[in-house]
Structure formats: structure tokens, C-alpha cells
Amino acid sequence: MKSAKNKNVLVKMIEDKKAIQECIRKGGDLEKIAKQRNVKFATPI
After folding, report:
1. Helix (H, G, I), strand (E, B) or coil at 45
2. Which of 9, 23, 26, 45 is most buried, judging by how many CB atoms fall within 10 Å of its CB?
3. Cα–Cα distance for residue pair 15/23, rounded to 1 Å
């Protein structure tokens, strides 16, 4: 059961990464994406 949860976390991370990359490419609002997906960056935006 633990491996299923780990896969879900990895899948979420990959989806978040793709959404962030797409946002950057399209020039979208990165702060909005971060709040929607509850993502925290190491450096402030």
C-alpha cells in the first residue's frame, strides 16, 4: 500500500512540474499556479 501512495506523490510532482513549465512558456501567473497546486519554491518569486 505504501508504494501506491509514493506513486501518487511522484505523479503529482510530475504534473506540478509540467504545469509550472507550461506557465513559464506561456508567460502566465506563476504565483497563481503555485497557490492552486500548493507548491513552494526555494527562492521567492
Report:
1. coil
2. 23
3. 12
* Interval 24-39: pLDDT, tens: 999 999 999 999 999 9
pLDDT at 13: 92
List of residues 6+ apart from 22 with CB closer than 8 A: 28
- pLDDT for 2: 65
Any idea what the Cα angle at residue 27 is, between residues 23 and 31, rounded to 5°?
60
Structure-block grid coordinates of residue 13: 510532482
C-alpha torsion 9→12→17→19, nearest 10:
-170
